[in-house]
């Protein structure tokens, strides 16, 4: 899942693949017998939500909120405003309140990110407090550090449990390093938010290890709830698949990638392997779908390696992406850092054979030789071997793709994710009194100071690299 990374341009992405569509107002219905925990009133905080979609976080919060509402929970999402969007509405059974910017604004850019975040949290807090005028809530659910100050204010003001999802960490986004003061500040906010949350949700076992090691959160307070996928959104019609094949493929196999073009997505290692793959598979074509701050460097690498006739970079493909995935002979996820690997699930749902780096959550999704092929991150030779194994044996490749698609349907549907999340809420509510007492006692004994940030690579020091 892509989250905000210091050092890359910040903007609303108008053309995200298969973006959620807000539909008519629906009133949540009580959950049936055996459907999970009792209905709860949930106050959800997120810096992005449709129509503001920068990365995967907004899609995640939208799909989770809709699934929780469908299960009978009362969900209010408080988020940032976007031009043309109503300040308040009901959509897909979810109450959405958008916090308009104050008259004095800060640009949403890297050099003013912290100022923008503080200003955003002021207006977000006021919007959330207005939401509570309609009734009490049972739990607050915060998503990542950009809403931390609002979450903490509401937790203390409303005296209700706080659950936080850590989608990615600042140290992880920078391969273990915190090179600038801003990075260290963001890391501190993440640690503060995680420490003050009754329960912390992460998307994978790898992320559980990362959060406990970096922030000192006891593993007993961390719940692993994977991200979900809506399989029907990634099933393209045969005619569109054929059109994608005709547009992008040559006389040989078609290999694809999709995602933001940032360093940690590892596209540079895919490019490094293309010359050898082209030797093994004449007529090979490679499509790199997406955009981002690393695009210029990748285009220069394509030119340097003489891959202009082999590699195409069409930018964001939006609703055309499922057809491209389905038309692929291999969909590659070469990430260096990937807390979960949502794009691998999306590729599997589309029916693409998968070759992924065995890092983070990707290693938990794809079982080598069963649901796809894996290779070590930052290893172009290993990538070539994994991709070649799929391209050289189409029958086996299709069998792996079928198993992967079955896995998506059985384990990563949003109704199951919502049930697991609601169980975390119930646990936070049940344990809130004891958690609050323990945190109060700890603050009285040691104050509110956070653990100092050690020098060097934090992931390496924690044994995670």
Can you put this structure into words, describing what you see?
This protein has 465 residues and is of the alpha/beta class. The chain has two domains: 41-228 and 416-461, 3-Layer(aba) Sandwich (Rossmann fold), CATH 3.40.50.2000; 231-411, Glycogen Phosphorylase B (Rossmann fold), CATH 3.40.50. 42% of the residues lie in helices and 14% in strands. It contains 16 helices and 14 strands. The protein has helices at residues 56-70, 113-131, 148-158, 170-173, 181-195, 205-215, 238-248, 267-280, 295-304, 321-327, 342-350, 362-365, 380-391, 394-411, 414-446, 458-461; strands at residues 41-45, 74-80, 88-91, 94-99, 139-143, 162-165, 199-202, 222-224, 254-258, 285-289, 311-315, 330-333, 354-357, 373-375. The strands form two sheets. The protein has an eight-stranded mixed β-sheet with strand order 3-4-2-1-5-6-7-8, with helices on both faces. A six-stranded parallel β-sheet has the order 11-10-9-12-13-14, with helices on both faces. Helix 11 (342-350) packs across helix 14 (394-411). The longest helix is centred in the last third of the chain and has 33 residues, at 414-446. It is globular and about 65 Å long.
Q: State the assembly state of the protein chains.
A: single chain
Largest sheet: 8 strands, mixed
User: From the 3D coordinates, which CATH architecture of the largest domain would you assign?
Assistant: 3-Layer(aba) Sandwich
The tally of structural domains comes to 2
Report strand order across the widest sheet: 3-4-2-1-5-6-7-8
Average pLDDT, to the nearest integer?
90
Q: Please provide the count of β strands.
A: 14
H and E string: EHEEEHEHEHHEHEHEHEHEHEHEHEHHHH
CATH class of the largest domain: Alpha Beta
Structural class, by secondary structure, is alpha/beta
């Amino acid at each position: 899942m892509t989250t905000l990374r210091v050092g890359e341009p910040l903007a609303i992405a108008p053309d995200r693949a298969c973006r959620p569509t807000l539909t008519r107002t629906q009133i949540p219905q009580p959950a049936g017998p055996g459907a999970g925990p009792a209905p709860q009133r949930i106050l959800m905080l997120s810096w992005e939500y449709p129509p503001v979609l920068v990365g995967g976080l907004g899609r995640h919060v939208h799909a989770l909120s809709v699934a929780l509402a469908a299960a009978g929970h009362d969900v209010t999402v408080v988020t940032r405003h976007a031009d043309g969007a109503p300040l308040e509405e009901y959509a897909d059974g979810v109450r959405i309140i958008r916090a308009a910017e104050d008259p004095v604004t800060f640009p949403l850019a890297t050099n003013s990110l912290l100022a923008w975040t503080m200003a955003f949290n002021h207006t977000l807090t006021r919007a959330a407090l207005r939401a509570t005028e309609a009734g009490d809530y049972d739990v607050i659910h915060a998503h990542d550090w950009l809403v931390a100050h609002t979450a903490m204010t509401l937790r203390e003001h409303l005296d209700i449990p706080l659950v936080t999802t850590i989608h990615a960490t600042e140290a992880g986004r920078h391969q273990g390093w915190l090179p600038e003061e801003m990075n260290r500040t963001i890391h501190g906010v993440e640690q503060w938010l995680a420490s003050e949350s009754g329960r912390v949700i992460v998307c994978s076992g790898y992320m559980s290890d990362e959060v406990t090691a970096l922030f000192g959160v006891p593993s007993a307070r961390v719940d692993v709830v994977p991200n979900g996928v809506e399989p029907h959104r990634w099933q393209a019609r045969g005619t569109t698949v054929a059109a994608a094949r005709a547009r992008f493929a040559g006389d040989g196999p078609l290999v694809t990638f999709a995602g933001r073009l940032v360093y940690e997505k590892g596209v540079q290692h895919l490019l490094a392997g293309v010359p050898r793959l082209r030797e093994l598979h004449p007529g090979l074509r490679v499509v790199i779908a997406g955009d981002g701050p690393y695009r210029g460097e990748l285009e220069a690498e394509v030119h340097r390696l003489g891959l202009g006739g082999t590699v195409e970079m069409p930018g964001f493909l939006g609703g055309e992406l499922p057809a491209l995935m389905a038309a692929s002979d291999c969909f590659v996820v070469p990430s260096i850092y990937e807390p979960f690997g949502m794009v691998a699930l999306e590729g599997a749902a589309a029916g693409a054979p998968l070759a992924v780096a065995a890092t983070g959550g990707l290693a938990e999704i794809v079982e080598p030789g069963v649901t796809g092929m894996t290779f070590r991150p930052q290893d172009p030779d290993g990538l070539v071997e994994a991709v070649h194994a799929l391209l050289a044996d189409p029958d086996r490749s299709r069998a792996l793709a079928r198993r992967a698609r079955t896995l998506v349907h059985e384990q990563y549907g949003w109704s199951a994710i919502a049930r697991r999340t609601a169980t975390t809420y119930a646990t936070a509510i049940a344990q809130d009194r004891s958690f609050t007492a323990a945190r109060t006692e700890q603050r009285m004994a040691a104050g509110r100071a956070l653990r100092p940030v050690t020098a060097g690579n934090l992931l390496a020091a924690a044994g995670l690299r």
